[in-house]
From TrEMBL:
Essential cofactor(s): Zn(2+)
UniProt cross-references to NCBIfam families, sorted A to Z: GSH_gloB (TIGR03413)
Subunit annotation: Monomer.
Domain Metallo-beta-lactamase: start-end pairs: 14-176
Protein name in UniProt: Hydroxyacylglutathione hydrolase
Binding site for Zn(2+) 2: D59, H60, D138, H176
Gene Ontology MF term list: hydroxyacylglutathione hydrolase activity; metal ion binding
GO biological process entries: methylglyoxal catabolic process to D-lactate via S-lactoyl-glutathione
Residues in the signal sequence: none
Keywords: Hydrolase, Metal-binding, Zinc
Function: Thiolesterase that catalyzes the hydrolysis of S-D-lactoyl-glutathione to form glutathione and D-lactic acid.
UniProt keyword Hydrolase present: yes
Keyword Hydrolase part of the UniProt annotation: yes
Length: 264
């Protein structure tokens, strides 16, 4: 059997709809728009077998009605959110069995960006190099994180910590091409971080060739992403300067960085 492949389907201005497929069957994650997905399926002669949703925002769910009308497939999505097109509500501890691919994905609750946001984590079969993979919607981005719309900074920080605790080699499939903007902010927070400087060169090169900067990895994010580095003294120091007060806990540093980025 052919190895599983994972590809980004660009949508809207800077979204990626990720598709996992072999030579016959496909699963899409967060199809905000149906037409680029239908184009991809048709040009690769693939049949859609399932849709996975991380959270309710329309740029992640808008393509569902059109795709379901054509393929009548199960739609997995967060149990804590009301999404009319979801047929299989899931939450932490649940496993999604995608038999036709074959792939099993575990559900992780990561509230903060929205109140019921979930991620899907799994390992590709040995025939596909056995890599760990994570689909985390709008929670963790390359060198950044999602805005805290419905949850609290505490929830978002805890959710990011859960993702940071996954194996270092986990490939992280984020849903937006925000990398260069995020690096611009990250370098302001941590100007002497050599890994981050290297990452900026890599991302600039890729974007100049119109190549996605994603997936990233948990290891790379732990070395470059300020929102996963709130426990470090140098990040605490600059966050205190911005907040003009002493910040005791990493979660306070996180809340400060998030507010700073909102106004950056
Ligand atoms: Zn969102």
């Amino acid at each position: 059997m052919m190895a599983l492949q994972i590809h980004p389907i660009p949508a809207f201005r800077d979204n990626y709809i990720w598709i996992i497929h072999n030579t016959e069957h496909a699963v899409v994650i967060d199809p905000g728009d149906a037409s680029p997905v239908l184009d991809y399926l048709q040009s690769h002669k693939l049949e859609l077998h399932a849709i996975l949703i991380t959270h309710h925002h329309s740029d992640h769910t808008g393509g569902n009605p059109t795709l379901i009308a054509k393929f009548n497939v199960p739609v997995y999505g967060p149990k804590q959110e009301n999404i009319a097109t979801v047929t299989h509500p899931v939450r932490e501890g649940d496993k999604v069995h995608l038999a036709t691919l074959p792939l099993i994905l575990e559900v992780i609750d990561i509230p903060g960006h929205t109140h019921g946001h979930i991620a899907y984590f799994g390992s590709l079969p040995a025939s596909s190099h056995g890599k760990n993979i994570l689909f985390c919607g709008d929670t963790l981005f390359a060198s950044g994180c999602g805005r805290v719309f419905e949850g609290t900074p505490q929830q978002m920080y805890r959710s990011l910590q859960k993702l940071a605790d996954l194996p270092d080699d986990t490939l992280v499939y984020c849903t937006h091409e925000y990398t260069l903007g995020n690096i611009n902010f990250a370098r302001t927070v941590e100007p002497s971080n050599i890994d981050l400087q290297r990452e900026e060169l890599r991302a600039k090169q890729l974007r100049s060739e119109n190549i996605p900067t994603l997936p990233t990895s948990i290891a790379r994010e732990k070395s470059c992403n300020p929102f996963l580095r709130c426990h470090l003294p140098e990040i605490n120091r600059i966050a205190c300067l911005y907040a003009k007060k002493k910040l005791e806990q990493p979660v306070e540093v996180f809340a400060t960085l998030r507010e700073w980025k909102n106004n950056f």
